[in-house]
Amino acid sequence: MHTGLDSTFGGMEAMITALCDEYPRLLGRNRELFVLVLLMMVYICALPTCTYGGVYLVDFLNVYGPGLAILFVVFVEAAGVCWIYGVDRFSADIELMLGHKPGIFWRLCWAYISPVFLLVIFITSLLNYKEMLPGPYIYPDWSIDVGWLLTASSLACIPAYIIYKFCITKGSFLE
Question: Which residues are annotated as a binding site for Na(+)?
Answer without folding.
Answer: 6-7
